Amino acid sequence: MTPPSRGVPAVITASTPLPAALHGYEIARLPRKESPHTTAARSRDVAALLPRLALATGSTDLSVADLAVRTLRSAFADFARDHARSSIARCWSTWNGFCSFLVAEEALPGNPMDGVQRPRPVRPAPKPLRGESTTELLLTSVAVARHGARDPWPERDLAVVATLLVCGLRSAELLGLTVGDLAGARGERRLRVCGKGNAERSVPVGDVLDDVLARYLTSRAARFPRRGSLPWDAAMFVDVRGRRMSRDQLQYLVRTAYRAAGVHDRVARGASVHALRHTFATQVVAAGASAVEVMRLLGHQSLTTSQQYVDAGAQELRTAAAGSAGYAVLRRAAGA
């Protein structure tokens, strides 16, 4: 029999110190294979509430027994003073999951989070790029070496923006792509994408995007000739030094592309990289895709999320993108 993980008590009870119980909860969640972003967000939620729980109980030596409705209400009331609705809802979800785990472990008789209020979920409206000419201006601009750039790489920049725009990927999904994730014969190319909760989906790659990616990989081989052929698990998108592109580098690339194209004022506040994903969704809906098809293409975990794009209003969607314009615009911008 395998011994319990280091730092995790064999049995979690009401007297178990809270840090040890939280560690046990993290160990129990390992089979879920959550993304690093999910784990990091949960850690932030835990760290944010612990001092507030200590204040509510008057003690820093917290145990499972301190997780009572009254103390949790007090802690969340304090947390809500300087946090947005979305942050409160996420933190509530984190602690609700932890308390449910403690109930399953029989360390708590019931889930005290049932007595703690949380904000009603408000699903934000889609935020695609505004203006019918925006995507064409963006792709045409990014396909040309930016004047004054320290180390211009237009083939890479176009491949990044185009993949986001015509495949609807999240930032983490794009950054996690490997060379081997692009597979299939010409005309049947697909990208294997690892989404939220490590759920995999297959996204079709049209011939135009296939050509754009091929030009990028050719330019990459010319930039780094000593590295030879790329292994299947090599990062698809890299920085100018050949290292896997980071989230900050991706955001900077996209923001710079907006400004160079003169369309930064057509991007909804807070959207940035995600605006390209929203634009893709509005395009496929305007082209006649159903909520189920949107769900499959974008890797949504809930049909309700996909339905937002269908319900956003036909006129607004047509203004954002006429039909499946992404590939037509990309074809002109890439000179195909």
From TrEMBL:
<feature type="region of interest" description="Disordered">
    <location>
        <begin position="112"/>
        <end position="131"/>
    </location>
</feature>
<dbReference type="InterPro" id="IPR013762">
    <property type="entry name" value="Integrase-like_cat_sf"/>
</dbReference>
<dbReference type="InterPro" id="IPR050090">
    <property type="entry name" value="Tyrosine_recombinase_XerCD"/>
</dbReference>
<dbReference type="InterPro" id="IPR002104">
    <property type="entry name" value="Integrase_catalytic"/>
</dbReference>
<comment type="similarity">
    <text>Belongs to the 'phage' integrase family.</text>
</comment>
<keyword id="KW-0238">DNA-binding</keyword>
<protein>
    <submittedName>
        <fullName>Tyrosine-type recombinase/integrase</fullName>
    </submittedName>
</protein>
<dbReference type="InterPro" id="IPR010998">
    <property type="entry name" value="Integrase_recombinase_N"/>
</dbReference>
<dbReference type="Pfam" id="PF00589">
    <property type="entry name" value="Phage_integrase"/>
</dbReference>
<keyword id="KW-0233">DNA recombination</keyword>
<feature type="domain" description="Tyr recombinase">
    <location>
        <begin position="124"/>
        <end position="322"/>
    </location>
</feature>
<dbReference type="InterPro" id="IPR011010">
    <property type="entry name" value="DNA_brk_join_enz"/>
</dbReference>
